[in-house]
Amino acid sequence: MAFSDSVASWRDRFTVSGWALLPLRLFLGFTMLYAGFLKISDRTFLDASNPASMQAQMLHAAKNSPLSWLLPHIYEHASLFGWAISLGEVAVGVSLLLGIWVRLGAVGGFLLSFSFLLTVSWGTTPYFFGPDIVFMFAFIPLILAGDGGVWSLGASIRAAVVRTSNLPNRPVEQIAPAKVAEVDRRVLLRTGGVAVGAGLIAVAFGVIARSFGGSSSSTIAATATPTPSPSTSASASASASSSPSASGTATPTEKPSGTKVATTSQVAVGTAFAFNAPDGSPAFLVQPKAGTYLAWSRVCTHEGCTVDFGGTEFICPCHGATFSEDTGDCTGGPGQGPLQKYAVVKAGNDLYVA
User: Fold this and answer.
1) Where in the chain is the domain with CATH 2.102.10.10?
2) How many helices (H) and strands (E) does the chain have?
3) Which of the four, 203, 249, 296, 305, has the lowest number of CB atoms within 10 Å?
């Protein structure tokens, strides 16, 4: 069976593994291709200075991951691993959607999902909130059954090769091994050429999209501030944390404590300025109302994903937890408490975070 099927009825078709698994195969194929495309097209994905980058996600995953001993070494080669993950997802997506080497593609998808489970999803509680464990098990039926020859370009290519090879009409085990090997070789070359071509087209679209944008979809005034040098930090005679409010103001004779992260012109009302907090965590600086500056960690309290800013609240893209812009409290979803808060001090037009 290839793109056409000889089974009499739809009821009969779904007793065949290829047809029964087709919806799962198409969903996983599209999702993996889309995930790889997003990574390739996003300029911030491998930008270590950006709080939403792969490097930032790895640093937070290292806190709870059973692979915490390995992640620092991967971090040193983040670009290499980032491209490998992106291209791997594209390859899996192309394999499943076209029906070429489906079992091999499903193994690749399983391994990618397993690696995500051991890193970014490991701290998920309860476990079924984590998507990666679900994706991991979803690939197993395709590893076992393949595409079943249904909507399969690989099956069509094999059928065409068999037709042009003048093989005798007898069971495969009765055909000369040399003839069978020749058919397998031709099928491998043709399916490999189609897979590589389709993958290159998908990557090319991602690269083109990257050149035209690739910025985060959240409402952020600026992407990130490089980790400040020690010269931008100063000691203060009074600590910002002693102020009862979230935002303090240093007197002209004081040197504000903490690290300078932005100027007031960079944090307009209703926007968020992304920066790296003094402890290395990604964070947001916001001005919910004129003159009030607040700083919140971007690390979701559910499983450590990086939250985005939605204009009036923080939203976790992993499982939908939402947090208040004013208090940091979880207002919806599976968040396990409020976002971490940082003290903010305003000195003139400069904003310092401690």
Assistant:
1) 230-353
2) 11, 12
3) 249
